[in-house]
Amino acid sequence: NAGVTQTPKFQVLKTGQSMTLQCAQDMNHEYMSWYRQDPGMGLRLIHYSVGAGITDQGEVPNGYNVSRSTTEDFPLRLLSAAPSQTSVYFCASSSANQPQHFGDGTRLSIL
Amino acid sequence: EDKVVQSPLSLVVHEGDTVTLNCSYEVTNFRSLLWYKQEKKAPTFLFMLTSSGIEKKSGRLSSILDKKELFSILNITATQTGDSAVYLCAEPNSGGSNYKLTFGKGTLLTVNP
Question: Residues A18-22: what's their mean pLDDT?
């Protein structure tokens, strides 16, 4: 049982580069979310999706784009990486009124 | 804006001790409060609380919600080194569903042998 799979696990980027963090779930969950976790800050919601074709912004959406073309996949795009986006990124999925299941995270460093 | 505050931010105990972790919240349209345990990687789900005064229990861990005083506690009895982790409290933002969580900063628990 894979659950929520995030790739890559680690990535180093230079300022200004773009990249996509991948997230896939095999539980047929309709809801998916992206969070970032910084030291001393807890997890903060970036974007979320309530179903294929539907996305919305969370607490800290600036500098990130998402899309949801299928139920399984919810990629997060960094348009022009900045050092402030150095963080650990978690993807999560859930069904209605159930707790979210989290992936193992992507540790991203922007130089 | 919804707010979740956890205390203490860190705690060091010895194996066998009992610990109580606190989570207070200020939310509109309360629906649920969730507890997660985070070791090195993904947060893993512990409890979801929706009703006041009803204790949820799983082995040595238990949790209860007080909707009148707007707080929840997580108890761990007979702690073990494997309980060392960050414990996170979260609630659905603005009464939404569990895909829009507002997290507290977490309590770092260290259990020494």
Answer: 97
Reported as a single tens digit per residue, the pLDDT across B74-99 is 999 999 999 999 999 999 876 567 78
Question: In this structure, what token pair is assigned to residue A81?
Answer: 């990486």
Min Cα distance B64 → chain A (Å) is 17
The chain A residues in contact with chain B (CB within 8 A) are: 4, 31-33, 35, 40-45, 48-50, 58-59, 90, 92, 94, 96-105
Distance separating alpha carbons of residues B66 and B33, to the nearest angstrom: 11
CA A75 and chain centroid, separation: 7
Please say if the pLDDT value at position A104 is more than 80: yes
Backbone phi, then psi, for A82, in 5-degree steps? Answer: -125, 150
Which residues in A17-86 belong to E strands, given as ranges? 19-25, 31-38, 42-51, 54-57, 64-66, 76-78
Q: Are strands A19-25 and A76-78 parallel, antiparallel or unpaired?
A: antiparallel
Q: How many CB atoms lie within 10 A of CB A77?
A: 14
- How far apart are the C-alpha atoms of B91 and B94, rounded to whole Å? 9
- The predicted pLDDT at position B42 comes to 92
